[in-house]
Design a protein that fits this description.
CATH superfamily of the largest domain: Medium-chain alcohol dehydrogenases, catalytic domain
Distance between the termini: 24 Å
Strand content: 25-35%
CATH topology of the largest domain: Quinone Oxidoreductase, Chain A, domain 1
Number of domains: 2
Number of strands: 17
Helix content: 25-40%
CATH architecture of the largest domain: Alpha-Beta Complex
């Protein structure tokens, strides 16, 4: 049986969202239909609405930080039941056959389905995804605020889980939607955390979130924050910085890791990398296993995103608030 969906869509690049209806086909054997309860708004939604990356297709229903209740499951779905509260992030399905999927790296599957690329997302009353890309929320997770964990949260958690030890010193550049979650995760991970921000207001907030130190970007780039100190510098910003200078702040075998989409090449000298066995990396969202681990970790340590809430029918107001840069720190739509 088909499913009629009421949504909000951009009809052209950069236009305000308007009510939009569409029909989902009959449920596939691996599909799950979800009644949307809450949906976070990410800067990636703004980028897709505005066609900043050049591959948006209209009408476009964005929204990829979905928390909802399962309404129907396909015949082959076993681990999700009707009535479960589930989360859906940037990816809505995987091929389940390639080497990346078979080795547990579904997030780098070359044919992974994106929730708002080539399909409609969670700015709606219902959304559909493959069961493998959905996550039953563990006990203790706050349903109303959990949506941003499915994109912003896993984006910072995945490199922490893979590259950071509990005794490490880590600097987080940018205290926004991604950075504030990185601070919370790193503090509970056991790290000594340095927040990097030029905002005095955010400096005080970062300390309340778990940062042990706060420095300005200038202090980091000048070496005033410490040379040879950090095991990781985690950048959540999309602006150019003096990466050659920041490289000198790394301890031997330290790593600069970017989850911000900087659109200019990084200028990095090779000898500090060679002599200190340092590295530079980047990553997208995490694998299903990493997302499940993050949700369990967040539940265990009572980690929640800082959120501001708008009703779904005030979606254009919510998007404008996010675009203004005033959000503290993630915006969530409630139905």
């Amino acid at each position: 049986m088909s499913q009629r969906v009421n949504a909000y869509a951009a009809m052209q690049a950069g236009e305000p969202l308007v009510p939009f209806e569409y029909e989902l086909p009959a449920l596939g054997s691996d599909d799950v239909d979800i009644e949307v309860l809450h949906c976070g708004i990410c800067h990636s939604d703004l980028s897709m609405i505005n066609n900043d990356w050049g591959f948006s297709a209209y009408p476009l229903v964005a929204g990829h930080e979905v928390i909802g209740r399962v309404k129907a499951v396909g015949d082959h779905v076993n681990h999700i039941q009707v009535g479960d509260h589930v989360g859906l992030g940037w990816q809505a399905g995987y091929c389940m056959d390639c080497g990346q999927c078979m080795s547990g790296h579904h997030n780098t599957c070359p044919t992974a389905e994106m929730t708002i690329v080539g399909r409609h997302g969670g700015f709606a009353d219902h959304v559909r995804a493959k069961a493998a890309a959905l996550f039953v929320l563990p006990q203790g997770i706050d349903v109303a605020t959990a949506g941003p964990l499915l994109c912003g949260g896993i984006t910072v958690f995945a490199p922490i889980a893979e590259h950071v030890s509990p005794t490490d010193q880590v600097a987080v550049i940018g205290i926004g939607g991604l950075g504030h979650l990185a601070i919370k995760f790193l503090n509970k991970w056991g790290c000594e955390v340095t927040a990097v921000t030029r905002s005095e207001d955010k400096a005080e907030e970062a300390k309340k979130m778990g940062a042990h130190h706060v420095v300005t970007p200038q202090a980091l780039e000048s070496g005033e924050a410490g040379l040879g100190r950090f095991n990781m510098v985690l950048s959540t910003v999309n602006v150019a910085m003096n990466w050659a200078a920041i490289l000198e702040t790394l301890a031997p075998r330290g790593r600069i890791h970017s989850v911000g989409a900087v659109d200019v090449p990084l200028e990095i000298p090779i000898f500090p990398l060679i002599m200190g066995e340092r590295s530079i990396g980047a990553s997208p969202v995490g694998s299903p296993n990493a997302i499940n681990t993050m949700l369990q970790f967040a539940a265990r340590h009572h980690i929640t995103p800082d959120t501001e809430h708008f009703p779904m029918d005030s979606i254009n107001e919510a998007l404008a608030h996010l675009k203004s840069g005033k959000a503290r720190y993630r915006v969530v739509l409630d139905r």
